[in-house]
Specification:
Layout lengths: L1 H28 L12 H11 L5 H23 L5 E3 L3 H10 L2 E7 L4 H13 L7 E6 L4 H6 L4 E2 L1 E6 L2 E7 L12 H11 L23 E2 L14
Parallel strand pairs: 1-3, 2-3
Antiparallel strand pairs: 2-5, 4-7, 5-6
Amino acid sequence: MSTFNESTSSSQNAKVAHLTSQLLASSSASRRSDPDPDAPDEDELFAELEAEIENDDGPLREQGLKELQREMERLKQMREDMHGKYTELTDEKEVIRTCSSEPHCVIHFYHSNFRRCAIMDKHMAALAPKYFNTRFLRVFVENVPFLVEKLGLKVLPCVICFVKGVSKDRIIGFEELGNADSFSTATLELRLMHTGVIQKDPHSVPVVNGVSSVAAHGTRLRQDRHDDDDDFDL
């Protein structure tokens, strides 16, 4: 009996994971700049997936539908929270709250006077629709003086990766991206993937270790230095 239950549970998890990945793929595709006009919308996909598990055994079918409905609600909430888009926050308290509540969050701290920040914006905007489970934000440094001080921001552009409210890694300037303005979006993508803040498989649970910060060169935000802990817990 135990073996049967474990087998059924494993089958359920695999089924729900498969359905969830399809829903996420559909949601991400709808946010691309060139969405497929023939692709079904989420309501159509839900109906199709519901029919797909219609022929399963009673317990599996019921559990699968419940999981699918919960996943749909989660996706709708994430859409309302601007997942899949590269957005700007101007209120410092809201930045802290968002970083604390989002499991995976990437923030570009920028200044409008710095040309390289505009280059980083372009790549962040391209990645946001691709990784729906990760929140992509931009924050103007003059709006967040406390965070600038606490995080020890001295060089821009600066991209900080937050996992469960803790800063796990930061990309300072372009040194780690080829040290050239012409780096590709894929280069930034691989760098973020290494940290674990973005994941190809939305159902994988990566083991994310704190990555020590590295020295980088770029436009100086200010010359003074502060002793600061790179793992800042929000």
